[in-house]
User: What shape does this take?
Amino acid sequence: MISVNPTYSGLNSSLKLAIYVKDGDIVELKSETSDGQIRKNSGLKDVLNCDFSKVHVICPIFVEGTESGDAIKVETIDVHEGWG
Assistant: This one.
């Protein structure tokens, strides 16, 4: 299993790839994506007032053997929710 947790506030072509994976690799991604704006007890008002310029995205990942424009299939095996 490959673990990675860097995040970025936006994606663009200047970002370095965080990891390189091969077809069939299992990758564990860890991220706190809201910059602390959304918490366990947050409600609709908190979500509506979220500053999306501070929302993080997962790091760029390169799948070996792919080229620009290729479609890839990603399977989500499990999602864990964590707070604090």
The chain has one domain: 2-63. The chain has one helix and six strands. The chain has a mean pLDDT of 78.
